[in-house]
Amino acid sequence: MRLYSLSVLYKGDPKVHLLKAAYDVSTFNFFQRSSVQEFMTFTSQLIVERSELGSRASVKEQEYLCHVYVRNDGLAGVVVADNEYPQRVCFTLLDKVLDEFSRQVSKMDWLSGSPATIGYAALDGYLSKYQVRPHQH
């Protein structure tokens, strides 16, 4: 069970933009990592674009399962996980992240922010905390 990416996006008018993201591509071959990361970024944006405000969904994309939650205020979160990762846990994580993000980052920044300008450092921590490590025998 693995989480590969966790991102916060804003479903604005006319387009969706990425505000902050964390990736764990350590399980991929070194030469694949940047294309895997680009795929996850692109897929996350596409799924948010296709989702209604106030909706939650789990979408299968290649060998991944993408869990998306778009709040009524346009703030959205996407977790890209493998097929075994429990859906309920993904939505708990998204609830927590979006709630915290909306308290720490001003709404003004949602409209024009980018991963470089938004100061919200917790994503990497959540990604590793929610990562299910295989037990060592």
Automatic annotation (TrEMBL):
Gene3D superfamilies from the entry?
A: Longin domain
Q: Which InterPro entries match?
A: Longin-like_dom_sf, Longin_dom
Q: Write out the coiled-coil annotation as residue ranges.
A: none
| Pfam families on file | Longin
Write one Gene Ontology MF term: SNAP receptor activity
Q: Name one GO biological process term.
A: protein transport
> Organism's domain of life?
Eukaryota
Cellular component (GO) terms are: Golgi apparatus
Q: What is its main location?
A: membrane
Q: Does the keyword Nucleotide-binding apply?
A: no
Membrane topology of this protein: Lipid-anchor
Q: Which terms are listed as keywords in the entry?
A: Lipoprotein, Membrane, Methylation, Palmitate, Prenylation, Protein transport, Transport
Domain Longin positions: 8-127
The record's subcellular location field reads: Endomembrane system
* Similarity comment: family membership: Belongs to the synaptobrevin family.
- UniProt protein name: YKT6B protein
Taxonomic source organism: Steatornis caripensis (Oilbird)
Q: Which gene holds the coding sequence for this protein?
A: Ykt6b
